[in-house]
Amino acid sequence: MVNSSMRSYAKKLPFVLIVMMLATEGQTARAQFEPLPRRDNASMMNLVRPVTEKISGSVVQVYSGDRPVALGTIVAEDGFILTKRSELSGDPIRVRLSDGQLLPARVAAVRRSNDLAMLRIEGDLALKPAKFAGEIPPVASFVVSVGRKSNPIGLGVIGAKPRRISHQGRLGVLLQDDRTGRAMVRGVFPDSGAEAAGLKKGDLIVAINGRKERSRLGVIETLRGMFPGESVRLTITRNDEAEDSTTMDVDASIRDLNVMRESESDARVNGPRNVRLSGFDQVMQHDTVLDPDECGGPLMDIKGNVIGINIARAGRVVSYALPASLILPEMVSMLSEARSASR
């Protein structure tokens, strides 16, 4: 049992440290020199479960096509759910509620700048929205990521002060002016969206998403506004060996520059990540190891406050979350837009 002096001392300690003390009480002196278990082991997850149960029923699994692609956070009783936009690459879009119901959903509003989508599900449902807190925990604070059944899916630590992450979206081509100033492909990066789309040296990019582009600088400026994970339709003119030109449309994906640059070994070390890893106005960085389809769900502090939404698995031990201070105004704006459109 814990004696009275330990209880008095424990009142001054953070919740997670108290839990670790209780979990290790009674071990032998020899065991004190053994490596500690992973902090996200089953025992620790069970110990923080009371924290995550505070938002029971507020988390859903989002499906795009026939596969789960993200989590979603319920933000309004009348069927609105926030999730990660760039993972919604196929129809139909559906959500599975905490009670197991699988329901059709539609995209009601988007915010490209922070990779957010507002989904809407219809029906006479008694949904429980998550309530966001505005405070950002200091560096070294513990945070808990939450799954569909309000179960803890990861325990991490805030590793850096909130900051902007500039987007690194690239098509993956080197361009030069042709003799008329149009954008001609001079080279194609390996493992890029341009390579996957079949672009070749000498191709002229004459339109993007149906809009004519008459200069190299115009093409660069348009592509610069594209985020990783987005798809773009390129109209290209290609000269074959017989010097006859062919105009065609191809679809290409915008990919993260850092991912394109990494080696095969780097990719294995980093593990699976989201297609969009950059381009956020402000993020909290924590070291929870999440699967890509576990982003979009809430991030909580150890007091049970919902402090943000996980938005990207960016590296081996790097996950990003949008803080509540950013989420709240975006959410209010998106709800207003979505409700006005449905009237």
Write a structural description:
The chain is α+β, with helices and mostly antiparallel strands and 343 residues long. The chain has three domains: 4-36, no CATH class; 59-165 and 279-341, Thrombin, subunit H (Beta Barrel); 169-256, PDZ domain (Pdz3 Domain, Roll). The chain contains eight helices and 20 strands. It has helices at 4-10, 15-24, 42-52, 193-197, 216-224, 257-261, 264-270, 324-341, and strands spanning 59-64, 67-76, 80-84, 93-96, 102-111, 116-120, 142-146, 152-165, 169-170, 173-177, 183-188, 204-208, 211-212, 231-239, 245-253, 255-256, 280-286, 298-301, 306-315, 318-323. The strands form four sheets. The protein has a six-stranded antiparallel β-barrel. A six-stranded antiparallel barrel has the order 7-8-17-20-19-18. Helix 2 runs antiparallel to helix 3 (42-52). The longest helix is centred in the last third of the chain and has 18 residues, at 324-341.
List keywords for this structure.
alpha+beta; 343 residues; Pdz3 Domain; six-stranded antiparallel β-barrel; single chain; 8 helices; 3 domains; 21% helix; globular; Thrombin, subunit H
Strand order, largest beta sheet: 1-2-3-6-5-4
Helix/strand/pairing class, anyone?
alpha+beta
Helical coverage, percent range:
10-25%
CATH architecture of the largest domain: Beta Barrel
- Separation of termini? 62 Å
How many domain regions? 3
Q: What is the CATH class designation of the largest domain?
A: Mainly Beta
- Unreliable stretches covering 5 or more consecutive residues: 4-13, 15-33
Radius of gyration: 24 Å
Return the CATH topology of the largest domain: Thrombin, subunit H
Beta content: 35-45%
Q: Count of DSSP helices?
A: 8
Report the average pLDDT across residues.
88
Largest sheet: 6 strands, antiparallel, barrel
Shape, please? globular
